[in-house]
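anyone seen this seq b4? input:
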Amino acid sequence: MASSEFHFKRCSIAQDGVTQQVGTDAVLLGAWANVAEAHRMLDIGTGTGVIALMLAQRTENIPQVWIDAVEIHPASAACAGLNFAASPWSDRLRVWEMSVQEFAQNAEHQFDLIVSNPPFFSETTRAPDETRRLGRHTATLPPGEMLAAVRRLLAPGGRFVVVLPVQEGLRLCELSVPNGLYWTRILEVRARRDKPVERLLIQFEKNPYNFQRTSLLIYEEGLRYSNEYQELTKDFYL
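predicted toks r here
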């Protein structure tokens, strides 16, 4: 289990007992998601709350922005709640300890932006321990059920943004169309120039008429962050 805090410029994030520590996937998603004109946001499977906190920071000068976070794992939900309360944006953040399936059945509002760093391990590729397994195994949030919940929760002009490994991301694109969602923006992420694409950040919308594909390199030679990655995350990393 994680025990150390993760430090950003504007907040610190406790990680005790959570299903998943703060990692590059979450940071990429929190920095890349398009927050334009998004006044009501939802983070599915919030974990520590890191993505919701990043969205709150990015919209702190915009009035009437509210961010809900859903987390099924009790210890993670409790940790996210503590991180929200300790942050400068506590008045706009709220965590719900429940599945997104249940949340979607009872939600009173639709959302302009929905984000998720969702489970991706399959039945044959399992996470190495039970706590991490709950956060990363698709049995807790099957792709079809996630898309059905998003379809119900997403406002007509809203955006749904995820980060996934390549094959899982492409599979989600296939499953999205029958659910009335269409990929309109994809970022292909490589760790290094000589490595294949390892992650896809994908934006879905209910309007299928726009599409943009871009790429991002995380490291230049050695372990030096690329200029583009530094530019994307400059408001967060110390």
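Helices lie at 24-32, 50-58, 74-86, 100-106, 130-136, 143-153, 166-176, 227-233. The chain has one domain: 25-233. kinda curious what u guys think
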